[in-house]
Task: structure prediction
Amino acid sequence: MESLDGCDLRSFMARQNHEGRRIEIAHSIYIMIECCRALDHAQFPNHPDTGKPSRIPHRDVSPPNILISNTGEVRLGEFTFTRRKGFLKGQFSYLSPEAASGLECDRRSEVFALGVILWEMLTGQGLFWAETDYRTVELVRAARVPSIATVTPDVDAELEAVVRKALAKNPDDRYESATDLGDVLAHYLFSHRLNVSKRDIANLLRAE
Result:
């Protein structure tokens, strides 16, 4: 990933939590839309057999791999190509249940990881966190998702439903791709008249 002045999303979220604040709902949604867009425009690595670009799931969609620049741009880190079933790549807390079980993954696994990140931005809490990697993977496999509204009452039922669809345990019940998730979130911002731009994100970083 090219060098950009700014910080990664994990550091930004940690600073917000340290100061007893959450990222505002509209800002969280905008950042997620940009993550979806980054996945949609990602440069895919060449397939090891054909030597041609191949659309494979990104194996490290996680806050440390998402960079927010001082100008409000959101970028996603590089792909890692692997075909080995059972290979766990990336942050354990952001695996999909199928990845945590060593099963085949596709773009819906990316959707699950994005759902975890959005849940955490909206609540200011970790979703699948445990003292050991083994226990964390167990939590991911179970995919039990507490209600956002119990933590953040100003998150409405419509937005909660979007996040829950992204976090469905069964991949067939999720959005088909990050593009689909991004489109739904963009519609949510528009329909609720929430205007956010990268300038707002840049100002948010400068306020830290």
Remarks:
- The two ends are 24 Å apart (CA to CA).
- Residues 80-90 have pLDDT under 50 and may be disordered.
- The chain is about 45% helix and 5% strand.
